[in-house]
Each structure stands twice: as structure tokens, then as C-alpha cells.
Amino acid sequence: MNVKEKLVILGLGAAAFIAVAALFIVVGYVVINGIGVISWEFLLESPYRFEYGGIFPQIIGSLCLVAVCLLFAVPLGLASAIYLAEYAPDNLITKSVRFFVECLAGIPSIVIGLFGLTFLVYYLDLGICMLSGGLALGFMILPWTVRASEEAIKVVPHSYREASLALGVSKWRTIRSVVLKSAYPGIITGILLGLGKAIGETAVVLLTAGSGLEPFLPKSIFDPVASLPVYVYMIGTKGHTSAAYSRTFGASLVLIAMFLMISIFALYLRNRYTRRMSRG
Amino acid sequence: MNFLERARCCGFKMLDPGTAEKIVETLLFILTLSSILVVLCIIAFMFKEGLPALALGREFFLGMTWYPPNNQFGIVPIVVCSFIVGIGALLIAAIIGIPAAIYLAEYSPDWLRNFIKPCVEMLVGIPSIVLGFFGLVVLVGYIKNTFGGYGECILAGWLILAVMTLPHVISISEDSIRAVPKTYKEASLGLGATQLQTITKVLLPNARSGILTAMVLGMGNAIGETMAVLMVIGNPEIPFIPSSVLDPARVLTSTIVIEIPYAVWGSMHEHALFALGVILFIVVAIFNLITTAVIRKGAKHR
After folding, report:
1. SS3 A47
2. Fewest CB within a 10 Å sphere: which of A129, A167, B91, B179?
3. Cα–Cα distance between A51 and A30 in angstroms, integer?
4. Domain A58-279: what homologous superfamily?
5. Nearest CA-CA distance, residue B77 and chain A, Å
6. Cβ contacts (< 8 Å) between A8 and chain B: which residues?
């Protein structure tokens, strides 16, 4: 290996290093600036006078929104995935379903937010509330749940299905007791990854769920609800004091921590699952 | 999941298995159609709200001034800014991402790859709002002190967006380099070509369509990205076509988020913002269609 080749390798490695460095710089900066403000008061109190107080309603609000989103997207996505993977004949309707799922995945989140604003908030007259925000988030992650579940169902070996069918078990029963049972870690991983996407989403929630600063917990799904990303946006862009900045970093840190927990759990499931599958 | 069992308990005991299976299949099929319904609803409602502004025609599509208080809704500067920001970010992402992908696919030892890959995947997960705030506090201040200007500028938007598109560019490019059949590489090495020559003359040309796909997809993502860009790009009162990378700019997404709270529902301003959404939707859809076409062509080619 000559010098030139070595230099090239060095250059290529440096490029890869930049990508990794970007992650560590951003996360490190947020952690260093945010860790100081984290305390039980910050996590368990409500915000007051714009930039003071804690972020309890924001954390709970984010969780509620994600829950509504999952209640909508998971049953629909799973049903679609089962149909596409197990039943769908190779005809125009199936092809167009796939095409539309791809379309939905490509729509920018701000457009989904606008759609939520006109359709859910004004046309269905739900108002700016938890239900609107959760459903709009659900539209956003629906294609992810469909794709992930379909992939997970497809990797279940055909011999499993054949064994079950040969025992005289009906097709639906086979899907329910055999296919879904072996596919569920994969499905849950996919859903968790979608959830990670939904919890950090700002534009959709900003237009449909609330201003992000509500100091109260929602009493019903028709109440406006605060959420962490929108809180970060509001405090970060409109507050210019050091109190506002440190709280923004604190809230960002909580948001990143939530995301990390979700994805580490998803990766853990995926690893365990692939190990089991490869063992046969 | 226990639909059938419940149905049986509720007095459908006589339901024969064939019919029950049919019912389940139909039910699943109906639920499957929901994705189509959602997309059609999105298209219908976006166009319905945007139509009055789209109907302005030349004034809207070729107008040079966007100034809602005067009822001027010309989108040219906003669209131009969107493309400038998107293309610049993508170039930066490509300059870093493609070499990184080559390194990961060809040179990196396993342990290093097992460290870099998850890091790159995590980068996708940093919420865009957090990245935007980081940009606002760190990057904008740095640019202001080093290069002058307002700090909130196109350059800041490029860098932040490049970080966001980088993971996509790296993983898709790496996959397509790895997808080149091993025999090609072995044949080239067997003929006495160096590894570097093999990469530039054999691997990259064969992985071209995959890398192009990554670019087009990244472009769609970059133009559709909202919060991170919004926070670092400055958003001047009246959008203009920038003359330097240190000028602030206004893109499609940031205009929508900033102005929608002030737009009176039913006014031309609100219709114009939805029309911006329609334009954004169409632009991103075109990029996605190109991607699908390239992938399909690539699949046929092999």
C-alpha cells in the first residue's frame, strides 16, 4: 500500500469521523448545558410566567399525544401490514395501496400539520386539542408502522405457516397464533422507532395540539395539551434570558433522553430477535 | 386480536369457518384502504384551501414580492430560497457522506464500523427542534463572530440541514456500495488494480444509481424539513433572493410556521399559506417519484 492510498484512507476515515463528531458535539453540548437545570422541581412542576417553573405538563402532554397517536396508527398499520403480507393478491388495488403508503411516508410533516389544522381542527371542529394532535401524528407514522410490521411478518419462515396450515388450522388462526407470535418483536421494534419519530415532532403538534406552554394537565382528549418539542420551540425562540436558555437545554435533554430510552429498547429487542431467528 | 372468538361468543356460533375467514379478510382489506383515504384527504383538503391563492396565477407563481399586509403573495423568492438551502445542504452532506460511506463499506475494521453505524443512526433521531436550537445558540453565534452579518443565515441553514441529511446519505450510499456483486470487485483486484482504482472505476460507477437515489431523497427531506431550518435561517420580514451565503432567507416551510398563527382563517393570506403547502407537497412528491423510478430501473438493470 503506497502513501497515496494511505492518504485516501485517512481522508475517507476523516469524513466518517465528522459524522460521528456531529452527534457527540450536539448531544454533548445539550447535556453539558442542560444537566444543571434538571432537578425534581424542574421535572415535576408546571411552568409559570413564560420561562420559569418546570416542565411536568409538557412531559405528560408529550406522552399523552404519543399514546393517542399509537392508538390510531398501530391497529390500522398492523391490519394493513397483515393484509399486504398475507392476503393481498398481486393486483392494481394492492399496488396502489403500496404506492399510497410510500406517498404518505414522503409527505413533509408541515404539510401533515396543515392538513390536521384544516381537516381535524376546523372541518371536523375538534379544535386545537390532544385528539387532533395525536391523530395528526398518527397520520405521520402510519406508513412506518405499515412498513415495519410488513417486513417483520415477511421474515417469518414459510415452513411455520405451512406446518400450522397442514395441521388443519384456519388461515386467520395461523396468522394470529403462529405468524404474529413470531413476528411481534419485529413489529414492536418498528412501532418503537415510529414512536421515537413522533415524540420529537414539532411542526405537526405546533399546528394542531397547543401552544406548548399550557401550565395545566389536559382533563380530556378535547383539551389543548402542552408538549416538549413545542415548549423547546417557544422558549428557545421567544425567550432571550439565560433562564429561558437553560430551561430549553433542560427540556431538550429530557427529550433526547426519552428518545434514547425508546431506541435503545428497540435496538435491544431487535438484537435479541435476530439472534433467536438466526439460531433457528 | 380475539375478534373471531368474541364473534363466536356473541351468538355467531353457527358461523362456518369459511365465512368467518372471508369476514376477517374483508375487514383487513377495508382497514388497509385507510392509507389511501388519508392521502386522498390530504390532497383534497390542501388543494381546497390553497385553490383561491393558486387561482391568482401569474401573480402568485411569478410574483417577486411576498408581503401579506399589502396582499402581495409572490412566491418566487421563497421557492428560490428553498432550493438554494436544499441544494447547498445536500452538497455538503454528499461531500462528507459519500466518502464516509466508502470508508464504512470498504476500509473500516469491524469494531469501528460497529461503533460508527449506530452513531450515524442515532444522528437521525436527534429531534430537529433540538438540532435547530443548538444551531441557534452555537452555530449562529459562531458565524456572527467569525464572518459578520446577522449570524442567522443560509450558511447556518446549510450546515444544520447537512447534519440532518447526512445519516440518510451515508446509509443508502453504503448499502448500494455493498450491493455491488463481490465478483466485480474480485475480478478487478485479480487484474492487479489497486483497491483505490477498484473503488473509483468499479464500485462507484456500479453503485451510482443507489447514490443518486440517496441524493434525491435527501433533497426531498431537506426541502421539507421545518423546525431546524426555521430556527437558524433568519426569516426576514420581506423575503428576497439572497446574494450571499450570509444573507438571511425565508423558505417554504418556515414561512408557513411563522405566518399561520397570524393569518385570519378564510383570508387570502391563509389560502396563500396553504398554497405554499401544496407547492411543497408537489416538489417533494416529484423528488420521491424520481427516487422510486431510479430504484425500479436499478432493480430491472440487475
Report:
1. strand
2. A167
3. 18
4. MetI-like (1.10.3720.10)
5. 20
6. 196
